[in-house]
Amino acid sequence: MNYHQAVYDVPSVFESCDRPKKPKAFDNTVGGLIPENLVRHGLDIPDLPERDVVKHFVNLSQMNFGVDNGLYPLGSCTMKYNPKVCDEIVSWKTVSDLHPLQDPSTIQGALRLMHELEQMLCEIGGVDSVTLQPAAGAHGEYTGIQLVRAYHEANGESRKEIVLPDTSHGTNPASAAMVGYDVLELPSKEGCVDVEAVKSAVSKDTAAFMLTNPNTLGLFEKDVCEIAGIIHDAGALLYYDGANLNAIMGKTSPGKMDFDIVHFNLHKTFATPHGGGGPGAGPVGVKKRLEEFLPVPRIVLKDGKYQLDNDRPKSIGKVRAFFGNYAVLVRAYAYIRLHGGNGLVSVSENAVLNSNYLKTLLKDTFELPYGDLRKHEFVMSGRPLKAKGLKTMDFAKRLLDYGFHAPTVYFPLVVDEAIMIEPTETESKETLDLFADACKKIVAEDPEVLRTAPHNTARSRLNEAKAARDMIFSWRGYEKKMQADAEKARPC
Ligand SMILES: Cc1ncc(COP(=O)(O)O)c(C=O)c1O
Questions:
Q1: Which of 63, 262, 300, 440 has its CA 20 to 30 A from that of 255?
Q2: 292: exposed, middle or buried (Cβ count in 10 Å: 0-12, 13-18, 19+)
Q3: What separation in angstroms does the CA of 420 have from each of 111, 112, 260?
Q4: What is the pLDDT of residues 248-294, one digit of tens each?
Q5: CA neighbor of 218 nearest in space, from 415, 404, 391, 72
């Protein structure tokens, strides 16, 4: 595949046009309704015709790579193609013109949709109740761990510790710590939870055990039921990180595996693209004994009408304004209804099939630790590249030159030079074959070509550490930074 990204070396719209400081004919006080001290007297944004704005954003999009461009095999983060019909439904006026402060009697359809989505997630997750409020996976974890605390407190216990394995996603220990728990990380054995380590770690101080299954190596934790027994016998709860359900829908469920709490990332499994800073949704499901602690309001069906129930004295309270990210909820509802139960089963079957197919094509090019069979994703080691003085990062950057987004790299931490690939169910065999061919070709290339990659993209290799440390998200931020730098450089 011959790939070249577009490059538009033109000034940005902010540089190329004058920005009016004063609005034209416009009553800023909205007829005196806005007090003078709150009125803004201008908007520091470019004054451009629509034609130029469209050109600006289309050009920018062509200098980028998205899931609609091609394979985006980001392990753990799931970048699968999302059916366009789900976006179309969200743009309907009946969805986009609602206001969250409308009286419930005027939004019966929206309340019904959310109520039904809760029930469908209960079925998929094997739980009894779901809240749709949390805005992301990590927010779901934070909510879930608050439920853990509320549960133990209601039982008169103040347990101090959350236990989790070293393969867990970074947000797990972070969420536990944010709620105020100590975190105990257990080393895995052959990529899975070491049952003996769990036995010796768990005590009357354990509040919960957090687990992702299949874990982030793509391995199914086969001892999960024994682990659940150990945790429950100690009076602790079992938390399932269900950020990614792509492998198990209709095959098993967190509830069947005896978990008490689960969060779902709707933006990984159910039709909203993950990443890119867009909004997500991290609903949380629980078994019956935790239901009374869920956030308010609960959507209930009473006398044939959907109503908001705030009368839940043991609730942990509200965790998000209004109903959560409604548009993401609508997309998930549409996706689930579009596929139906059998369709979701084939999503999972194809996700696992694609992952194992690609793993088989690549396992001799890289190293594949921990046995053979994988679920929806697999993790290889880029260690063989070291012999040529190369790193996994060099390989990842070179992939961009072939028109593929790079996989997740350097996670999970238990694999040296990790390359974490999740091909997803939406990619064809032809695409997976092309991807595998590109990987093999890259490994055989002149090391210098890899070290200096990418070459065919709009921008060459970026300083990612600087981008993370020195975050500038807007032109205004950039201008502020330039000003501050100029101040610093001025001789005193
Ligand atoms: C396994 C796992 N858990 C939790 C999260 C956190 O989700 P979010 O990014 O929506 O906060 C992710 C995110 O990719 C994940 O992969």
A1: 300
A2: middle
A3: 39, 39, 28
A4: 999 999 999 999 999 999 999 999 877 655 689 999 999 999 999 99
A5: 415
Which protein residue has the closest C-alpha to ligand 1 atom 12?
A: 243
Q: Three-state SS across 293-336?
A: HCCCCEEEEECCEEEEECCCCCCCCCCCCCCCCHHHHHHHHHHH
Q: Which atom of ligand 1 is nearest to the CA of 244?
A: 1
- For the chain, the structural domain boundaries read 87-338, 347-467
Cis before 412 (ω within 30): yes
Distance in angstroms (rounded) separating the CA atoms of residues 326 and 107 = 12
> CA 183, 185, 190: angle at the middle one, nearest 5?
160
- pTM for this model (two decimals): 0.92
- pLDDT per residue over 79-131, tens digit each? 999 899 999 999 999 999 999 999 999 999 999 999 999 999 999 999 999 99
Residue with the smallest CA separation from ligand 1 atom 13 is 77
Tokens of 102: 């409308």
Protein residue whose Cα sits closest to atom 14 of ligand 1: 77
CATH topology of domain 87-338: Aspartate Aminotransferase; domain 2 (3.40.640)
Ligand 1 nearest-atom number relative to CA 265: 10
Q: What is the DSSP string of 354-366?
A: HHHHHHHHHTTTS
Does the CB atom of residue 394 touch ligand 1 within 6 A? no
Distance 106 CA to ligand 1 centre (A): 35
Closest residue by Cα to atom 5, ligand 1, is 137
What's the CATH code, domain 347-467?
A: 3.90.1150.10
For residue 139, how far is its CA from the centre of ligand 1 (angstroms)? 9
Sequence-separated (6 or more) residues with CB below 8 Å from residue 204: 159, 234, 235
Pocket probe for ligand 1: among 133, 141, 169, the residue whose CB has the most ligand atoms within 8 Å is 169
